[in-house]
Structures are given as C-alpha cells and as structure tokens.
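Issue: ligand-bound run for iron/sulfur cluster - logging full I/O for the record.

Environment: standard queue, default settings, no custom constraints.

Inputs:
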Amino acid sequence: MAINYIYPEYEVVRNYDRCISCRVCERQCANLVHHYDTKRGKMICDESKCVACHRCVALCPTRALKIVKSDHTFKENANWTGEKITNIYRQAESGGVLLASMGTPKNYPVYWDKILINASQVTNPSIDPLREPMETKVFLGHKNDKIVRDQYGRIKCDETPQLELQVPVMFSAMSYGSISYNAHKSLAMASKKLGIYYNTGEGGLHEDFYEYGPNTIVQIASGRFGVHPDYLKAGAALEIKMGQGAKPGIGGHLPGAKIVGDVSKTRMIPEGSDAISPAPHHDIYSIEDLRQLVYTLKEATNYTKPVIVKIAAVHNVSAIASGVARSGADIIAIDGFRGGTGAAPAAIRDNVGIPIELALASVDKRLRDEGIRNDVSLVVGGSIRSSADIVKAIALGADAVYIATSALIALGCHLCRSCHSGRCNWGIATQRPDLVKRLNPEIGSEKLVNLIHAWQHEIKEMMGGMGINSIEALRGNRAMLRGIGLTREELDILGIKHAGE
Ligand code: SF4
Ligand code: SF4
Ligand code: SF4
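Outputs:
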C-alpha cells in the first residue's frame, strides 16, 4: 500500500446472500466502483471512488447494497479533525485548490431553525384555507409608493414591467453546462406549468428552450457567455450576476471537459475550452457603472423587462443593496453563504459570506429606513429547504425566494456533492449522454410541480394559522416571528423578539 493512501470515506456493504451478480450496480455507477470478478465469480468494489450518491442502492433489484460512512478514524481532536488532516495530505500531494460542489456542509447556525412562526388564538381568528381564498400570487419589480391618477381619475399604470408569480418561489440560476439538458428542460417545463420562472445561469439559453422564454430569467454574468440580442429579448427578465453565495468575490469555472456539443454552441465558446468567468465584471467598478449596465439592458429590451441584480450575502450587504436599489435595478436577489454551486474552491465555499437570514433582515431594514424599500423587490436564496423557510423569509422581508438545491433534490439529486466531477449518476450535473438520459424531463417537471404545489398548500396553512390571507400582508411582518436560543444581538439584527416576549 502506498504511503499516500487515504482510507475511503464510505464503505460499500454488499449482502452476498442477496446479491445475484446481475451487474446492475456496475452499469449504474459512473464512478466505476463495482466490478464483476470473473475468477472469483462474485461482485467486488473499489470503495475509494464511491461518493455516496446511492444510485446503485436505489436500483439494486434485490436490495443487497448499502453505503455506510467509514468509522476508520484518525486520532483526531476538536482542533485537528480527520477532514482537516486529510485535506492537508491531499494538498501536499497535488499542490492544488480543493474543489467542492453544492452548499457548505459546515456546522454554522441555521437561523431558519431558530425562528418560530406565530398562530392566531381567540382574539385574531385564523383562516381556513380549504374554505376561504388565500392569495399566494406576488408581483416583483419597482412599485410606486402611492397611487397616481390621471385627469379622468383612472389609476396610472406606468410601472416598470413586473414579474408575476403564482407562488413566491423561483428556480435559481443553474447554467446549461453545469447541469444537463434534461435538468434544464425539467426546470423550464415546471416553471411554465407553475406560472413561475427559472434562470439560465451564466451559460446562455439553448435554442430548444426559447419557447419557454416567458418563464425564463436570462442571466448576464461577468464572462458574458451566450449573451446576444436574441437572448436578451427571449427572457421575461434579465439578471446581472454580481456574486454568488457559495463563492462571493470569485468568478465561475466550468471545466473544458463539460464544454461539449450544444454547451459550447450555447456558450459561444470553442469545445473543450475552460469557461472561466472573471471575478468582477470588467466594466463595473462602482454603482454608477452598474447603473450603466442596468440601463443598457433596459434600452436593449425597450424597457419591457425588469432587471434583477444578484449579489452574494457579504459583511456590508445592506450598504451594497442600498446602492444597487439606486442603480435602477427592479429586483435585488441576495444569495446566502449556504447556497449551492456546481464547482467552487472548498475554502471559499466554507468560509466566505454570511447567512441569508441575517443579510435579508439587515437589507430590508436599511431599505425601509432609507425610504426606498418599494423601489425594488427582494428575492433571497441560499438554502431554502421547505415551505416554513419560505414563510420565515417573507416575514423577514423577502418578496419571494430562489431555490436550486431543493429543486435538484426533487429531480433525484442525492446531495453527494460531487457535481464538479461531471459524473452525476442521476443525470443532473453531467453532460455525458448515457447519464443525461437517466433523467426524464416529463417526470422531472412533474416532481418539481408536485413539490411547489405541496409547499403552496403548506404556505397557505401557515398563513391561515396566522390569520393572514395574502403573501403581500405577510411580507416584512416580523411580529409573526419569534427567535429561540438566540442572543440579543442576533435578535436585534433579525428584528424579532425572543419566544415568550
Ligand atoms: S445490483 Fe445488487 S444484485 Fe445486482 S450485482 Fe449489484 S449488488 Fe448484486
Ligand atoms: S458512487 Fe454511487 S453508484 Fe457508485 S458505488 Fe457509490 S453510491 Fe453506488
Ligand atoms: S446533482 Fe448529481 S453530482 Fe451533484 S450533488 Fe446531486 S447527485 Fe451529486
């Protein structure tokens, strides 16, 4: 055994009494873990390649497999964990940055789980959503502070275009290239059925998906991949990506191995070339520069589409958001540090940024204090995991949420956090045709629709319990929230009282 041997993180446990050597697991594992040993006449495996994606477990016809976390351990302590020691071995060997995918697995506080929702009792009756109408529709974009009427008394509707959502959820940016054609198609089809929007990410829009334009947000990132006039006109809204929660302050990187066929054509870059988007937009070094791009995009689309500016949640996010609100943007999207990614340096993903809950509360407060809250809508993302997270986000001041990891889980993702390898066994974060076809977009879109419908029901139940019958009345209604186990400072930032107060 080599001296640089690192014990595998997972063990593949095969029950040989059940295994019928059908070799399904061998065919299903793109990481080449399982093999049929002809000499011994039995299945064997190389556990060092296993990422715990559970594809083989799910498809084994005799339920002969399970994946367990290895209990092999270092003589670790609270300071020097096995992970820290292993990472040093890996970097001492490779000299390279450790890449990671999906959101940070670190044990930072999840504030959603330290916030509780109110319910009416006696004096303020609750509403039964089965018997009474409940409004989950929201409009995103700049709103006038007061109603303006023309000389005939009619309300003047000279608002900038709005995005109309039947439920306050959108699918966040995931580029074609980082995820597969079938994953993009599932998101596009589900958005159309649900009356919401999905987001192209920074990879351009595949020509097959132009028909979903009315439900598409087209993104303009620092690399400008796939950006051209028809692309801008195709979307219902335009999103300038300034930052991403999982990797604030750095650009994107899609390895050349994933730039194949239609991905290369859609991004408008040669096959096999790495798609590296710069850390900053090279034409944006101030709010004034950002304003120029906002208005360039509005001009290019005849002022018919709202412009979103997406920023990562960082230390001075409220001041940044205040500047963005003055840039002419219609919507600000804020991405928290637990947000997912197709690929990012693990050191950045796990150590940079701030939680979305604190960022949202401080941005909403600042915009209110400055009297510009209605100039923009706020959309937040970065690990929204349930209908309760959505209700809490809206009560903290969001107009709507972006989800990405939750949507991928609905498509079958098992959170193995190895999207950057390009060997997603569930057909989501891959461009390998044999893997892509494992995801059926018809079934995928159905699952997404089911998930959002289920969440919509739960949102209505929670709103009804509070005696609130519309999302608009819930937005920023922090009296409906209480903290549990939080410090006074955390409560102050969140702008909520402690449970019992
Ligand atoms: S899929 Fe199950 S039954 Fe078939 S070879 Fe693998 S472990 Fe054995
Ligand atoms: S990588 Fe996935 S499919 Fe392969 S052995 Fe591990 S759990 Fe099974
Ligand atoms: S998308 Fe695929 S590779 Fe990425 S975490 Fe999910 S299952 Fe793993």
